[in-house]
Amino acid sequence: MNNDMTFGMCLKLILTTFNIRMSQLAKAINVDSSLVNRWVHEKRIPAYTYLDSIAGYLNKIPANPMQLQILDELYKNVERTPPPDTDSNIDKIYWILHNSLNNSSRLHNKKINVPNKEAVNLGFNNAISLSNQDKLLYGIENIYYAFLSLLSLAIIDTNNKNKNIYLSYHNNLDSPIFTDNNLNILKQKLLEAIKNDWQITFILRLDSGVGSIIRFIHFVLPLMKTGKLKLFYLTNYESFMTRKELYIVSTIGALSCFPSDSYSGIDCAFYLTNTSAIDVFTNYADLLIANNANDIIRHYKSDMNGIYYSTLTEVSEKRGNQYSYNNSFSKLLLPENMYLKFINQTDLSEHEKELSIYYYKKQYEGFYNNLHIHDFMDIYFISILDKLCGEKRLYLYTYAGIKIITMENQDIIDYLKYVIYIIKTYSTYQIAMVYHDSNDFIQNITLLIKERQLVLLEVFDTKRESDVRLSINDPVIVNAFVTYYNSLWQKISPINKDKQDIILLIEDYIKVLYKELQ
After folding, report:
1. Tens of pLDDT along 260-273?
2. How far is CA 12 from CA 16, 37, 125, 230, 445, in A?
3. What three-state secondary structure class fits 394?
4. What is the pLDDT of residues 452-462, one digit of tens each?
5. Which helix (H) or strand (E) holds 395?
6. Which candidate, 486, 281, 466, 462, places its Cα nearest to that of 377?
7. How many angstroms separate the CA atoms of 96 and 315, rounded?
8. Is a pLDDT exceeding 60 seen at residue 111?
């Protein structure tokens, strides 16, 4: 404990640690809640006789290992060193409170203003030393910059073999500190850490706030594309994580963040660089994931084609609305006779051709069975028409990945006429064509969302080879992506998603192709 920590500061810290409201403490020790409020805010100091009642009540609160660890750290650093040797939590709490009350009484008797900040060598304001290595930070801005400093150390680290970064997320992006610019800085730091072989793990819980969901998806999409991101969704909203956040950079540092009172957001944090303390937080994060969370991302490596295409086929066959975002026309808009023709033009083995045809037919059948009763929405880039008609290239999805097929003009005409047929025939099918230069749309990804069931994300490099293939099956996250997709759809100009206008656009390309045939 810092020598200048007053009773109000200490009591606020302990109440926050044990997740206790001031009104709960007031009721337990039979005083008015306004009195406890005045203690916490340094407007009054209590008589020493209250300490037994406060310590007795706090000792009855069930404590998890992390809370006990924090209590021990406070106890080891009280003003008098060393403190009495005891394993009793009630004695520890009493000793901590007693020493802080001594500080408050001494300051009160000397009529000295209580300092509200202490400079530390880390360059953060409003920090209180808990030991030589560990600090208590005040202010969300200080917490943000403290985490950036940990990430900066991770980026240049060359010796650490345990490269894991943990972040909890409970819709805290609405804080004023998390401007778009600051989020971009944080995202770039995480991407740089990934380049240095760090694995990023999110422990998250999303509410129904559309704005927060969309901001979060925008934030994590570039991280997902690296294949070095894990998302764990809390199935049991454990009380210790309520209104708290964890940021951990293994072996380098950790931040355990709390609200300072019942009404504030996250505005204080333990900043820990002590190796043992970091290990405690890391072990707690692993325990939280093991007992209270689901791994909601599946990464399909290059040798998992069979599993990936089985998953894709199951999604196509299941009932429900479907949303996609593509940088080339879906293979399901390619008629069966043309798919069979083109697959035989590839250099695939006979076995790979058979598997490609098998999965295509299963997905094709599922697509059209659903199209009669469910909504389908597709977003494409207009530039795919330029590539198809100008370069005469078709990016053909096969079991072994994407194969580039050189097409004749008549084949392209027949293909585009079939696309027009689908647009005209099915009222459930909606299509939009957007431009590459729109800030809301990311190039080189394919996103497929099956309502309430699955999200499939495929990322391509500049050669149109698949870099990363991921799926997410948590219903809450899938619904979040549906919300995200609908927000993108709403941003598209009406002319770019009007069926008749899109048909006219495609017909213009067909006319050019006919002229080339002549």
Report:
1. 776 667 788 889 98
2. 6, 10, 19, 34, 48
3. strand
4. 889 888 877 65
5. strand 393-398
6. 486
7. 58
8. no
